[in-house]
Amino acid sequence: MPGPKKTTGSDAPMAKRPKSPVAGARSSTAEKQARRAPRPSRRHAGGAQLGRPRTGVVVTGGASGIGRATCLALAEVGRPVAVWDRDLPGARRTARRCADDFGVATVAVGIDVAVSDSFSSAVARSLAALDSIGGLVHGAGVDGAMPVTMLDEDSWDAVLDVNLRAAALLTRALHPSLVAAGDGSAIVYISSIEGFFGHSYLPAYAASKAGLLGLTRSAAHTLGADGIRVNAVCPGAVDTPMLAPLLAFPGAREGLEGRTPLGRLANPEDIAKSIRFLLCDEAAFINGASLIVDGGMTAISGI
Ligand SMILES: NC(=O)c1ccc[n+]([C@@H]2O[C@H](COP(=O)([O-])OP(=O)(O)OC[C@H]3O[C@@H](n4cnc5c(N)ncnc54)[C@H](O)[C@@H]3O)[C@@H](O)[C@H]2O)c1
Q: Ligand 1, from 64, 169, 290: best to mutate by most atoms within 8 Å of Cβ?
């Protein structure tokens, strides 16, 4: 995947680039100053703080949903992204959008994160494309809905290997790169409010997401010595392909909205902005934390 090269993106941008001034229209002083600003600061909206550090970020699950929105949110503030996903065409689409809309270096890597043998070559490819890796977002995830009374070993492993085991082994694989990238390196695992609540048909999922919270605290302890922060985000109900089968049930969407004080489901960008915050210098003293991003759902009852 070429880096800053321009190609044609097919779908709508997450954040619009600043519009060119319309000829003849009146401009405020602020608008004139903004127009005179150097090109990079106009191009990467969101401000310098959100954009620091400027190191590259590996995002697993970047082909879809929250992972994809995270890639775009990071590119928006000028951070190069390595889009890792088992869906290679989807990863390529995300990478192309990041490059086209925000001019950052990108690479798309087709990978099954349950297979850790492939990590070292994926890291090498990503480093070659991005120059540095100062961030990891583990967003690849599966729900594997099945009650505990029906579970077999393979079904359990299929969920735990992707959601939890991969997070730990990716952290180990990327540790040298995160150290080499220097100040401000950080990791965000995408957990879930299911890490706090139990659902009868999601035992493996809930266990994996609760496990990520333990991993967050433990890794924060170890990596803190290197100046690397490790945090988790815990989304509530997010409107992505993962939730689509549930939302297909009549009344499901309305039920979730009714249990959310803000009265709506999250969109992927709501979560992506929280992840971007945890990866930037604005969050420089946040370490080992689990940030709930659910519109208030757990504050009143849980999913
Ligand atoms: N959607 C929600 O309501 C919700 C709520 C809380 C947490 N989450 C978590 O957010 C994360 C992103 O989920 P989403 O809702 O965007 O779902 P999604 O299905 O849109 O995206 C998940 C991505 O992970 C990739 N993936 C799955 N298994 C993989 C593997 N073995 N190797 C590489 N890539 C793999 C998929 O190809 C897909 O692109 C997941 O960890 C999920 O558990 C989602």
A: 64
| Ligand 1 pocket, residue 283 CB under 6 Å | no
Helix axes 203-224, 153-160, angle to 10 degrees: 40
Indicate the DSSP class of residue 127: H
For residue 24, the CA-to-ligand 1 centroid distance in Å is: 47
Identify whether the C-beta of residue 239 lies closer than 8 Å to the C-beta of residue 247.
yes
d(CA 94, CA 76): 13
Task: Report all structural domains of the chain as residue ranges with CATH numbers, in order of start.
Answer: 54-83+95-103+111-295 (3.40.50.720)
pLDDT of residue 301: 80
Per-residue model confidence (pLDDT) at position 1: 30
- What integer pLDDT is reported at residue 23 of this predicted model? 30
CA angle 61, 289, 183 (to 5 degrees): 75
pTM: predicted TM-score of the whole model, two decimal places: 0.87
Give the pLDDT score at 199. Answer: 87
Catalytic residue (choose from 205, 230, 259, 276): 205
Examine the residue annotation and report whether 189 is marked as an active-site residue of this protein.
no
Distance 112 CA to ligand 1 centre (A): 13
What integer pLDDT is reported at residue 226 of this predicted model?
97
Please work out whether the CB of residue 270 comes within 6 Å of at least one atom of ligand 1: no
Residue closest to 236 by CA, chosen among 207, 209, 211: 209
Per-residue model confidence (pLDDT) at position 35: 37
Give the residue ranges of the chain where pLDDT is below 50: 1-46
pLDDT of residue 185: 98
Helix (H) or strand (E) holding 291: strand 290-293
The ligand 1 atom nearest the CA atom of 112: 32
Taking CA atoms only, the protein residue closest to ligand 1 atom 19 is 242
**Residue of minimum CA distance from atom 35 in ligand 1:** 140
Q: How far is CA 117 from the centre of its chain?
A: 23
CA of 60 to the centre of ligand 1 (A): 9
